Structure prediction request, 297 residues.
Amino acid sequence: MATLTLGSVDVTQVLEYSGATRPPEAMFPGLDRTTWREHQDWLTPAFWNPATDLLQTYVQTWVLRTVDETILVDTGVGNHKPRPGAPAFDQLDTDFLTRLQAAGVFAEDVTTVVLTHLHADHVGWNTRLFDGDWVPTFPNATYLLARADFEYWHPDSSHRPRLAAANEGVFYDSIQPVERAGQLRLWEGELKLGHGLCLEAAPGHTPGSAILSLQSGRDNALFVGDLLHNPIQIVAPDLSSCFCENPSAASATRRRTLARAAGDHALVFPAHLGGGLAVEVAQVGPSFAVRRWGFEQ
Prediction:
């Protein structure tokens, strides 16, 4: 369990799940295998298994601690959640809360939960099963969700999401209980959280996808959710995943964010990448490159 101090904020990575997913072409429609072969040496083994040709994914939560706040960035899959449209996550049962406690965080300590978007593997631990009911896992926290995602995935919405099957039941068991408890706060555009933290709209992956920026002292960081599913998207930023509701918008947002990270020397914290805590990127012509990976303390 790794921690990095950025200015006055401690960032800790808490892993919930890791496993193989799908071949690169299945994850990234339109992928040129030549591009993959050019970079496969450094994509192995943390991000891709050449023996099986399957990508490796990680589901993790970022814990941000300031002098008076404990903030979670995304809450993973959760336990006992019925996810028939996402078999790897169906009825998952992990020791995530124990791992969170090992990082020094008890459920009652959490003051804010930042949800980068409303997908099953980012909002699951919003709630836990107690006496047959779904109740908020973090009873003292304010849960922050972009209004655009709340409305897009709401059961009464007229939208027909691409990932409707994979996200089936998520609103019911992971969002509505938090809303009923009065702990859900919807936001639009930009939301400053204090301590140099700011939530910003980053649409494309979902309509309400967001990034959390941090500027503290001389340090800058961007928590980018699913803007990156695999580091191949750094060197080929126009590749959007099969999970993106609007691939072209996701690509445009990715390019803007990577350019910002390179220009500001900001560390990038993706939701699903292992191999270390964060990545530093550099701009190379119209594309980008990995300058450094890891940053573990």
Notes: The mean pLDDT is 94. The radius of gyration is 18 Å. Residues 247-264 form the longest helix (18 residues).
